[in-house]
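Weekly modeling sync, notes
Attendees: S.R. (lead), two postdocs, one rotation student

Agenda item 3: backlog of single-chain predictions. S.R. asked that every request posted to the team notebook include the full sequence so nobody has to chase files. The rotation student volunteered to paste the first one in as an example of the format we agreed on. Action items at the bottom.

Example entry:
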Amino acid sequence: MEELKSEKTILLSSFDCSEDTGIAEVKKRVVAMEENSKRLTKQEEKYAAELEDALKQFSELREQAKNVDSAELLEQRVALQSDKIQAATSKIKAVYGEKFDPLILFDSKRDVAEMLGEEAKIQSIREHLQKKQEQTAERKKTSTKHEQER
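Predicted structure, as returned to the notebook:
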């Protein structure tokens, strides 16, 4: 009997209860924790299934991507990209109104390009445009010289 009383005292002290009345509160907390554990287990199963589906879709899309001509894809992407960027920019301007900041939009575009691995492509396009402008300027100079010589 004494052993049981001492064990009871040890258990009460471990639960921070001075008397038997505190045990009811501990039981409530245990029940709540068990319910939370069950809820979390269900959520884990749900998200694991969603992850499995997403991975399966990703694998299927990756297989489809192997059959796509990269040059054709790039052409289509360039054709669609400018329209989509303009549409998104218009929506952002409409939402933010006077608080719209073009610098933040530029930073966002740069961040997206980096995420997509397009930074090098953007740079090369810029270089290409710059070369075209230089060639156009040289042509104008050449045509101006020819006209002056005549």
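Discussion: group reviewed the output briefly. DSSP finds five helices and no strands in the chain.
Action items: rotation student to repeat for the remaining queue; S.R. to check formatting next week.
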